[in-house]
Design goal:
Helix content is 39%, strand content 17%. It is of the alpha/beta class. This is L-alanine-DL-glutamate epimerase.
Length: 362
């Protein structure tokens, strides 16, 4: 049997490709945590996770001091067993972002090894439902952009054949939010999907009020209106509006998704591989959502998520926010408004190690 004989972690700071702001924060930089696992039969699997500017060194420390040593001498084919062993070894710090980000970097590397050993691309080995996934754009919808810029961005996405756009909301006045959304709706017509994202910025009462105002625009979903731990608030909101409620990028365990789905508090789930702890739990969330007849539209990480959305039957969209172009040699292929899952063995990301070394901080 193959065994893992080397494990290393790299922290690299990656510049943000464009100014990105929402109702609660700005994307300062991407601290990219990369894990490389080598086996005695000559394979190297690479996994990664990320932060948006803080916490990366803490993730690296957890990996170096506690998690990676547990992998040496282990069989990389036993992905479930290794994920559970690492998770249980950090029991006192789970559920939480630092542990999930560390687990995700390892788990993604293990899946890369699994796919390389099998000679299959991730989208096939993880399920193989379809290769082409509808794409929607977030890059043209940031909160700091003027209304005419939102309109121009949405119109460009529509002309390119993409399948929707997402606009950030949470301006001080609901009137301002509504005017921006209506301008985009007027430009793209009644059928083109528009989603909105409040980034957990609202109270329960304000979310209900704004949802009522937004209904006239005809929205695809209302994303993260409330803090992620306010399940009961999302229950009340979901019952009060015809707009589908979307949550998930700030949830860190399968159980948290279960609570939302069991209570009809989410109509769309948005698991993020890095924040849920890797591909292994991501797939479990996707299948859990399928059992509740709910679509999966993951957050960020388009370069990885395209393969996972392609793997499952309830994968609906890939979110267009490119962030790895500076440290990869290939981009996600887009054809007729669809992102194509890479068809080569592995997780499908072509890393540029010279560019990574240039940005290495640890």
């Amino acid at each position: 049997m193959p065994v893992i004989n080397s494990a290393e972690v790299i922290l690299a700071d990656l510049e943000v490709e464009t100014v990105r702001t929402d109702a609660t924060q700005s994307f300062v930089k991407q601290e990219t945590i990369l894990v490389r696992l080598s086996t005695d039969d000559g394979l190297i699997g690479t996994g990664y996770s990320y932060t948006i500017g803080t916490g990366g060194p803490a993730v690296v420390s957890l990996l170096q001091e506690s998690l990676l040593p547990l992998l040496i001498g282990e069989d990389p084919r036993c992905v479930e067993a290794l994920w559970r062993r690492l998770h249980d070894s950090t029991h006192a710090t789970t559920v939480g972002a630092i542990t999930s980000l560390a687990l995700a970097a390892v788990d993604t590397a293990l899946w890369d090894l699994r796919c390389l050993a099998a000679g299959q691309p991730l989208w096939c080995l993880a399920g193989g439902y379809r290769q082409a996934i509808p794409l929607y754009d977030t890059e043209g919808g940031w909160l700091h952009l003027a209304t005419d810029e939102l309109v121009a961005g949405a119109s460009a996405s529509q002309r390119a054949g993409w399948h929707g756009v997402k606009i950030k909301v949470g301006k001080p006045s609901v009137t301002e939010d509504l005017a921006r959304l209506q301008a985009v709706r007027d430009a793209v017509g009644a059928e083109f999907p528009i989603m909105v994202d409040a980034n957990q910025s609202m109270t329960g009462a304000e979310a209900v009020r704004r949802a009522a105002a937004y209904e006239a625009v005809g929205l695809g979903w209302f994303e993260e209106p409330l803090p992620a731990d306010d399940v009961s608030g999302h229950v009340r909101l979901a019952a009060s509006t015809s707009i589908p409620v979307a949550v998930g990028e700030s949830l860190y365990s399968i159980g948290q998704f279960r609570d939302y789905l069991q209570r009809d508090a989410a109509h769309v789930v948005q698991p993020d591989v890095a924040r849920i702890g890797g591909i292994t739990p991501w797939l479990k969330v996707a299948h859990l959502a399928e059992a509740h007849h709910v679509d999966v539209c993951p957050h960020f990480l388009m370069e990885l998520h395209v393969s996972l959305v392609a793997a499952v039957p309830n994968g609906r969209y890939v979110e267009h926010i490119p962030q790895l172009r500076a440290i990869t040699t290939e981009e996600v292929e887009i054809v007729d408004g669809h992102a194509l899952a890479p068809d080569r063995p592995g997780i499908g990301i072509a890393w540029d190690w010279d560019a990574i070394d240039d940005r290495r901080t640890r």
